[in-house]
């Protein structure tokens, strides 16, 4: 029995050495990944800068009317395509947080690099809205039927927490390329700021 224990420890020690070697490779790959990400971001910025100059020059050529119109239109189309291609590449790279996320979370990286994970996070966001909307509706009905101050305060807390969480989740989605409308986010920020105010305070 004791020999088996020592043999198992020796076997486990061998597995741990393999783990250490794998971790070293993993850390090295992370460094390489960071370098490639920065290189891609730099190249995208360079592409956009050069395309901006090309677009201005094309605009001048169109005014002068000296160059072939078809050739100019073809180049404009190619620039639009390249802009879209750069945007697609950019979606696979980490992005800086907006002002709101920097205030709430600091400089924590919230970029989701895999498309499947982005879709999963968006799906969780939709489920979160649905579940909390149902709970909020139930709370609202109870507050109409039952006049109980702690119940009302619980409902107010739920609203504030819900909209605060919603604005954070939507900001993370925005960082990851989601096309959430500005007015949609604004009305959540608005309710986040004023959701604490009990409209029926006068009853008490």
Give a short summary of the structure.
With 204 residues, the protein is mainly alpha-helical.
User: Could you say which overall geometry the principal axes of the C-alpha atoms support?
Assistant: flat
Describe the main β-sheet briefly: none
H-E string: HHHHHH
How many helical elements? 6
How many strand units? 0
* SS-derived structural category: mainly alpha
Strand fraction = under 5%
- Euclidean distance between termini CA atoms: 74 Å
Mean pLDDT: 86
Main location: membrane
Transmembrane segments: 128-147, 153-172
Pfam family, one: TMEM120A-B
Protein name: Transmembrane protein 120 homolog
Task: Describe the secondary structure blueprint for this structure.
Layout: H1 2-64, H2 69-90, H3 99-105, H4 115-145, H5 149-175, H6 182-194
Helix pairs in contact: 1-2, 4-5, 5-6
Can you describe what's shown?
The chain folds into two domains: 2-95; 100-192. Helix 1 (2-64) runs antiparallel to helix 2 (69-90) and helix 4 (115-145) packs antiparallel against helix 5 (149-175). By secondary structure, it is an all-alpha fold. The protein starts with a helix and ends in a 10-residue tail after the last helix. The chain has helices at residues 2-64, 69-90, 99-105, 115-145, 149-175, 182-194. The longest helix is centred in the N-terminal third of the chain and has 63 residues, at 2-64.
């Amino acid at each position: 029995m004791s020999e088996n224990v020592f043999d198992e420890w020796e076997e486990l020690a061998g597995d741990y050495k393999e783990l250490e070697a794998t971790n070293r490779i993993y850390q090295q790959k992370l460094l390489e990944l960071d370098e490639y990400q920065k290189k891609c971001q730099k190249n995208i910025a360079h592409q956009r800068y050069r395309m901006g100059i090309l677009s201005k020059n094309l605009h001048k050529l169109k005014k002068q009317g000296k160059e072939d119109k078809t050739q100019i239109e073809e180049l404009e189309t190619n620039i639009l395509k390249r802009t879209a291609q750069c945007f697609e590449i950019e979606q696979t790279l980490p992005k800086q947080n907006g002002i709101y996320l920097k205030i709430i979370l600091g400089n924590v990286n919230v970029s989701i690099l895999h498309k499947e994970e982005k879709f999963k996070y968006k799906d969780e966001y939709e489920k979160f809205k649905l579940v909390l909307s149902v709970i909020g509706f139930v709370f609202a009905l109870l507050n109409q039927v039952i006049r109980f101050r702690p119940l009302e305060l619980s409902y107010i807390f739920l609203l504030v927490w819900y909209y605060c969480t919603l604005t954070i989740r939507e900001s993370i989605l925005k960082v990851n390329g989601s096309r959430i409308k500005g007015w949609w986010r604004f009305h959540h920020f608005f309710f986040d700021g004023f959701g604490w105010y009990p409209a029926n305070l006068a009853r008490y």
